[in-house]
Recover the amino acids of this structure.
């Protein structure tokens, strides 16, 4: 039971950065067309840069951490560039 609670703080930090990165990408998408669009875009750009750095750092902690970080970075990129607006 105690082994289930022993989680590395580094893995928690990497997971938190991944979650914040996805939220930043979603914020950029949701602010599109509003007066806060530039703020959302800069937040997303900063999130992408931080997530890219985390991907490089996560390689040191094994393939699982690196794959999770790469998947979060890919998801952020897809959220940012996909066009889900109705066709005109």
């Amino acid at each position: 039971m105690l082994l289930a609670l022993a989680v590395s703080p580094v893995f928690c930090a990497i997971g938190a950065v991944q979650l914040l990165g996805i939220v930043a990408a979603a914020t950029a998408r949701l602010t599109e067309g509003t007066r806060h669009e530039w703020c959302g875009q800069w937040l997303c750009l900063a999130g992408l840069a931080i997530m890219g750095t985390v991907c490089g750092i996560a390689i040191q902690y094994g393939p699982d951490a690196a794959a999770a970080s790469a998947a979060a970075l890919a998801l952020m990129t897809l959220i940012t560039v996909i066009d889900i607006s109705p066709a005109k």
Notes: Residues 18 and 71 are 9 Å apart (CA to CA). Residues 12-79 form one domain. The chain has a mean pLDDT of 83. The chain has one domain: 12-79.
